[in-house]
Structures are given as C-alpha cells and as structure tokens.
Amino acid sequence: MKKGICILGATGSIGVSTLDVVARHAHLYKVIALTANTNIDTLYAQCLAHHPEYVVIVDETKVQAFKDKLKNSPVPDIKVLSGAHALEHVATLDNVDSVMAAIVGAAGLLPSLAAAKAGKTVLLANKEALVMSGDIFMQAIADSGAQLLPIDSEHNAIFQCMPAGYKTGVRAKQARRILLTASGGPFREMPLEQMPHVTPAQAVAHPNWDMGKKISVDSATMMNKGLEMIEACLLFNMTPDQIQVVIHPQSVIHSMVDYVDGTVLAQMGNPDMRVPIAHSLAWPERFESGVEPLNIFEVRRMDFQEPNLERFPCLRLAYEAINAGGIMPTVLNAANEIAVDAFLNERVRFTDIPVIIERCMQQFEVKPADSLEIILDVDKQARNLSNKIIDELIG
Length: 395
Ligand code: NAD
Ligand code: MG
Known about the structure:
This protein has helices at residues 13-24, 40-50, 63-71, 85-91, 109-117, 127-133, 135-144, 153-161, 200-204, 213-221, 223-236, 274-282, 296-299, 313-324, 328-344, 352-362, 372-394, and strands at 3-8, 29-36, 54-57, 79-82, 98-101, 121-124, 148-150, 175-182, 243-247, 253-259, 264-268.
C-alpha cells in the first residue's frame, strides 16, 4: 500500500525538495494534496509531475487562472480548493497518512495543528508554528498519538542521535545536553559598524544552505537559531539551559547530543535538506535521498565557537522569550515575522530587526498561553504593535 502524503507549502524550498525525494520513491507514495500561496506556475508544473488529487491555492485571486490552465491540461481532474480553511481540509483527509508542514510562518499553524489533532504523521519544517503554539502543539500530538518527526536539519540530527525508539516530546533522561549547531550565517565576521547597511540581497545569500527568504534572513540575524533553540526545548522536552548553541561554520555536523556517560553523538552530512526529508519520510527505515555522499577528506577541518550575543541580539531575545515563558515566544515570533518582512521590503535596516522585536516584547506582560484563542489573539496584537513600532521608527 502506498502512503498518502499532503505537502503544505509545496512550492517553497522544502516543498520542492520533498517532491524531489518522493519522486525517487514513487512506488511508496501517493501525492494526495499540494498547497501554494500564490505561485501557481510552480504548482502547475508539480501537478503535471505528481498528479495530486487536490491542490489548495490560498490566494483566491489566482484560482480562476489556475483552473483555466488545468482544464486544458493532461490532469483536468485535480480538485482545486482555495482559501486558508482548505489547508486544514486537505491536511486531515482520510487517505493522507503523512503531512509535510512546510508553510513559512504563522500561516502554517492551523493546518499543522489540524494534522496533529487528526493523528497524522507530521513532518515538521514549519518551526514558527511550533514556537508560537508551544505546549498546545505538543499536547495535540500527545493526545492524538500522532508521530511528530522533525525536518529542521538540527532537530532531525538530534532526533537521530536520541536513544532507539525515542519519541518526540519525551525527555530522554540519559541525554544531559543538546549541542545545537549554527553556521553563523553570512555576517558572522562582518565588522559591527557595517551591519546596519546590510541589504536584503546580502542577507538572503546564505553561505551553506539554499532556503526561502524569511528563514535566510532569520539565519543572518540568528533568530533562526533562537527559534530552533525554543523548538528543541519543545520537541525534546528540555530546558533552555540544556541547549548549547555552537557556531560551526562548515555545517557538516548538524547537531549533537551529550549523554551522561560522556558520549557525544553527532549527525553529519552534506548541507542538503533532502537528507532530513528522506530520513523522516523513510523513518524508521532509510532510503536514498539523492544527496552526494559526504566527502570527509574535503571537509578538512571543523571549527566550533560560542555565539556572540552582542553581534546577534535576536538570539538573546529568544532566550529571554523562552525563559519568560507563557505568551512570550508567540510575541517574539510574530514581531520577528513583521520585522523581517519590513526589512525585505527595505522599510527598516537589518539592525532594526532586534530593536523592533525587543520593543514589542516589552509591551507585553507574561501570561499563560493555555489556549489556541489566546495564542491567535496575542499573535495578532504583536503584529499590530510591531507595525506601529516600525511606523514610529521610520517616522
Ligand atoms: P519558502 O518561502 O521557500 O516557501 C514557503 C511556502 O509556504 C511556499 O510554498 C508558499 O506558497 C507557502 N506560503 C507562504 N505564505 C503562505 C500563506 N500565508 N498561506 C499558505 N501558504 C503560504 O520557505 P522554505 O524555506 O521552504 O521554509 C518553509 C518552512 O520550513 C519555514 O518554516 C522554515 O523555517 C522551515 N525550514 C526551511 C529550511 C530550508 O532549508 N528551506 C530548513 C529548515 C526549516
Ligand atoms: Mg535549521
């Protein structure tokens, strides 16, 4: 029997890599649903190649043009749905076994959560959904008995270094620390006085990974590592002080687990997201991902440094948010999404990103994030507030 798969965010960097791996193992998978926000050209090409039963196009203005194109195509029977609610519908279809959660940002929360509640195997790339909803997401997984497999390369590496039979959300008692590796991004060594003049084009040009724009900027500010530190606390049930961020510019080791007996397990490989994607798709087996074998002789050396929180205030803010707890990670994530968007649109400077986030966080009192309603409400408030802060900043 083929496994049914739904890919939320099929047209993005992770979505495209997922379909690349799926195509290598077409006898194992049936693509049930693909979703896109606006990119109907890529979605159309994916329909021709993978013939899903459903597509969802969130941007309603693009739907008619897509339907017209499909009508005269070799795959006219594909059902086209639109709007954000349709994402939840396709993520919970009976014939879907696995859901790749690869929408960027908070927009992915509701469909990923719906998949978790429906007991699907959730392949989680969309770290923002987990960071903003925290315990609610992990509780949904525990309640439904769903399997949650991390796609983020670091978390996938940690998962692979966990004891046999490990299940996400559980505290592995013999593991005392996680060493969360980070490349340090493109500005690891840039003189601090040049940082305010960084352009969006410079920020999205990551030295080791080819990714969507938002996560590329997050990598440059190191908010990505901050979000990942919070993600690691949730996925592996650890406290922030048990997660040590390690700058490792070569991106060969994707993270490590330090055990009580002094053993440190690391997962290595070429920096290509098809490795964690193939791992999670095949889990608990393994199969080919299409990625070149690691040439250890070309690696030559591996460096490890402590992160500099002065250079990367976003990482400090992420520690402050998780230590404060409650709604603060939701605020951090929302303010970051707005600030990054403003930077990409050249409304604010690179170094304004942490300023906006910090000012936004200062406006909130910590309170428990114990319902989805509270989370969605705080997310909205933090976005509005961040936009106001940006208006004030740029006068
Ligand atoms: P991307 O920008 O390349 O793609 C984003 C996808 O989300 C697209 O398919 C887009 O259509 C969809 N989307 C965007 N806004 C939407 C909305 N409002 N509603 C519905 N769909 C929407 O991003 P990406 O690099 O593929 O990253 C996706 C997620 O995976 C992010 O959360 C990112 O942090 C995470 N991730 C990515 C990588 C990577 O290498 N790219 C690595 C680790 C984790
Ligand atoms: Mg990562």
